[in-house]
Amino acid sequence: MTVTPARDALVVIVDGDEVPGITIYGLARRGGWGPVVIPAHVWFGEPEVDEFVLRGDAWEIPTWDLPILIWPTADGMAAALRLSLAAVIASGCSVAWVGAEGLPFCDPPQLFDPGCMSTGVLAWMTAQGQFECALDPNEPISPISDQQLSMLRQFARGLADVP
Q: Cα 77 to the chain's mean position, in Å?
C-alpha cells in the first residue's frame, strides 16, 4: 500500500485551481487584530499569499492561502511555519494554525472541537509562544491529536466556542 506524502496531498485554491500549498489561520476578537505580513521570504520562491477573513459576532478568523512552489525539508517547514505563525500572533491573534483545502475546518462555536475538526490542524502556535509542527512534506499528513485540539479549544475559550 502506497501512502501519499504531504507534499503531494496538501493543496490550496488559487485563481480557481488547486495548487500545492497550505492555509494559515488566526483567531482574534472581532476587530482585535491588525495587518499581517506573512514572511514570504522564508518560503522558496516567495509566493504571493491570498488573504480573506471569516467573521462572527465576536470573532474573526483571518486566513492566508500559501501556495508552496518548492517544498522545504521537515526542519525547513518547521522553521518557516514558526516565523509565519509568529507573524499572525504578533498581529493580535490568540491562536494561529495550519490546515489545507479538504481538511476539516469548522467555524466557532465548533472551532477546535475534535468532533468537527479531528485531523484538520497540522501545526499551531499560541499567543504564549507554544508551538508545534510535525508536518514533514516527505511523510504522510500527520495532524495533531484530538487531545491537542481540545487544548487549543480551551486556550481559545470565549472565541472558539461562541457563534
A: 13
The one-letter amino acid code at 100 reads: A
How crowded is residue 87: how many other Cβ atoms within 10 Å of its Cβ? 18
| pLDDT value of residue 2 | 72
- Please give the single-letter amino acid code of residue 45: G
H/E stretch holding 77 reads helix 74-90
Q: Of 67, 120, 75, 112, which Cα lies nearest the Cα of 94?
A: 112
What cell does 133 get?
509542527
Spatial separation of the C-alpha atoms in residues 31 and 29, rounded to whole Å: 6
Tell me which residues of the chain have a pLDDT lower than 50: none
Query: Residue 157 corresponds to which amino acid?
Result: R
- CA-based angle 30:90:96, to the nearest 5? 70
Q: Which pLDDT belongs to residue 1?
A: 63
What's the pLDDT at 8? Answer: 97
Residue type, 159: L
Q: Is the peptide bond before 72 cis (omega within 30 degrees of 0)?
A: no
Distance CA 31, CA 68 (A): 29
Cell output for 40: 514570504
